[in-house]
Each structure stands twice: as structure tokens, then as C-alpha cells.
Write a structure and sequence with these properties.
single chain, alpha/beta, globular
Length: 130
């Protein structure tokens, strides 16, 4: 298991990992309500393609995901790795994760905030490794 670092505030590794589990398992199994709950409704997702930065808001991203077949349905092996997990303060955290949506494998930098007692992703910067 990846190490956890808490720089400030009361550590909440279990809460952070619960959100990441919803993120990983919701996407893999096509459970869009579970996957979507890992994100704050104001979240934005960012990438760079051919040298150009592009962004998408939460709602259009969820619609895009709803239109895809779940990796589990095709028998794909789940890739769900937490490479780094840091709680920066009582209400902010960062996770670097690796996951797959076949045929691509992604490295994602996730910024999370705790609001109303739960952690949610507010920013995702993603890069396809393959």
C-alpha cells in the first residue's frame, strides 16, 4: 500500500482512500453514480494534447463517461494504483494515481477537498501513458 503523508490538520487517510475507491471502482464497473460521487460538482479536468491545454467541466465529463462501456464488462483487468497520497491540510489533499480505461493507461493528479464531512475531487490533471 502506498504511504500516506499528512502535512497539517487531523489525518484522514481512511476518508481519502474511500473516495479513491469510489473513483476507481465506479469507473471500472460502470457505476456512474458511485464514480460521480467521488467528484465535486464544480470539478474540472485538465490535460495537454499535442502541446495544447484543454479542460472539461464535471457534467460534460460524466456524460462522456456514461456513454462508454465499463472495463469490467469486457473482462479487462482493473488497474487501480495510488502512487502518492498527501493530505496538505485539514481540508485539502493530493493523490497521484494510475488507472486504466482500455486501451489506455492513465496517470492522474487529483486534488481533493473535504466539504460537508467528505472528500471530493475538485481537479483532475490526466495524462495517457499508453
Amino acid at each position: 500500500m502506498t504511504s500516506f503523508t499528512c502535512l497539517s490538520g487531523t489525518p484522514d487517510e481512511a476518508g481519502l482512500r474511500a473516495t479513491l475507491t469510489d473513483y476507481f471502482d465506479g469507473l471500472y464497473h460502470g457505476e456512474m453514480d458511485r464514480f460521480g460521487a467521488a467528484f465535486h460538482p464544480l470539478a474540472r479536468l485538465w490535460t495537454v494534447a499535442e502541446g495544447t491545454v484543454s479542460a472539461i467541466d464535471y457534467a460534460p465529463y460524466m456524460e462522456r463517461c456514461r456513454g462508454r462501456a465499463a472495463p469490467a464488462a469486457s473482462g479487462a483487468v482493473q488497474l487501480a494504483e495510488v502512487l502518492e497520497l498527501t493530505q496538505s491540510s485539514g481540508d485539502t489533499a493530493h493523490a497521484r494515481v494510475r488507472d486504466a480505461f482500455p486501451p489506455r493507461v492513465y496517470i492522474n493528479d487529483l486534488t481533493l477537498v473535504r466539504s460537508e464531512g467528505r472528500w471530493q475531487i475538485v481537479a483532475k490533471v490526466y495524462h495517457a501513458e499508453t
